[in-house]
User: Fold this.
Amino acid sequence: MAFATPDDVAARLGRDLTTEEEAFVEAALDDATAAIAEAAGKNDEWSEDLDPVPKVIKALAVSLVVRAGQNTEGVVSRTEALGQYSVTDRFPDPRGGESASGIFLSDDERRLVRRVVFGRGSGTAIPASVLDGLPDWEDFTPFLEPFPVDGNADLRNP
Assistant:
């Protein structure tokens, strides 16, 4: 389930959607929902469990779709020069986390999603440990039997 509806996008645009736009908007809303869920570190089913959808998340989904609709070429950035006229378009690099569909979140939008989902000032870092991957302590209990402490003990031959 998408975080917003085509009617929400139409309301933002201030007009009704054409038949072609409606098909695009439905697909783009699914892409926007997936991008927002990814930014929150959640899976795709998270959107179905989120009821009601926070207004900020809904507004962001609509904003992403409107932005993608205005950028049908999928250009990430465009540079123009006047002297010796030149135009340079930069297209998304999927290796850099940018979506080829034109649906991508800026760093500020990603922070906004995390703040809405996890609250202000929360962190999502998972510290690594040198002990990660070691067997559980219970696996060592057979080795923890007391050794004889008298002077005749031979630890090489238990």
Remarks:
- The radius of gyration is 27 Å.
